[in-house]
């Protein structure tokens, strides 16, 4: 969305850092693909509640380019609110309460502080709630099971448990086990358990190709599964991450956002992300929001394999129709919220 209003090197850095090669096709194709993806993901379904959206909070006095406004509304179905930034605390409250409402109270206090020169805040939010196709029986959940954090430390966690037929694979190359559990609708959770000491290797190997490889390796089999019941939350400022990825000019005096406004010099000041994820017997509830701020300068059955997620693992929520990764995270300590 931000790249729609960026120009020159600022635009190139944003798109290239996100893995888009502009020599392979026009920029318009990228935005049209996102438009299509958002529409596909928003298709209503009974078994799945997936709400996502984008919103721009813009300083009343800021003169925006009509083309930029038209494009964010048309391509990203973004809402645009005129905002009074003269009181940063009032503006912050307005933005946070909007995000909290849109994520059903899951993401609170996304914006911790606003600088006095802020003229625009861009927020993306997503809320996901779904029920397992094969839910766990809460009666089988063990209230206090050991989960290894660090090399020798364990914490006690509620451990969900069931014997059922699931898609499962072992990846000998990456020394990890992959369990796919389906939700109603077209969404699935991938639980990936690395061998002892192999987490870093697994993280470095994550890619679209690796995901496709796992999808091909997966086979249905009877499993006895132990998965912690947990609720986790993570917040991060993405400025340092984006700088490392190559998005540099957007944050300094070289910024060119003249596609957003010609009357003021804009630069990025803050990019905040917060995700919340609950995994329980009946299903999953997840919410995430990212805010980008711009500154103006001026049981019994067949024989089965036992799979225990009792040490750190990766978790991916994937929309199978589009192969879009909705959430990606590492569960290191299920007791930490």
From TrEMBL:
PANTHER family: SERINE PROTEASE INHIBITOR, SERPIN, SERPIN A9. SMART domains: SERPIN (SM00093). Belongs to the serpin family. InterPro entries: Serpin_CS, Serpin_dom, Serpin_fam, Serpin_sf, Serpin_sf_1, Serpin_sf_2. Keywords: Glycoprotein, Signal. Residues 1-334 form the Serpin domain. It comes from Ursus maritimus. Transmembrane segments: none annotated. The keyword Cell inner membrane does not apply. This is Serpin A9. SUPFAM superfamilies: Serpins (SSF56574). Signal peptide: none annotated. Pfam families: Serpin (PF00079). One of its GO terms (cellular component) is extracellular space. GO terms for molecular function: serine-type endopeptidase inhibitor activity. It comes from the Eukaryota.
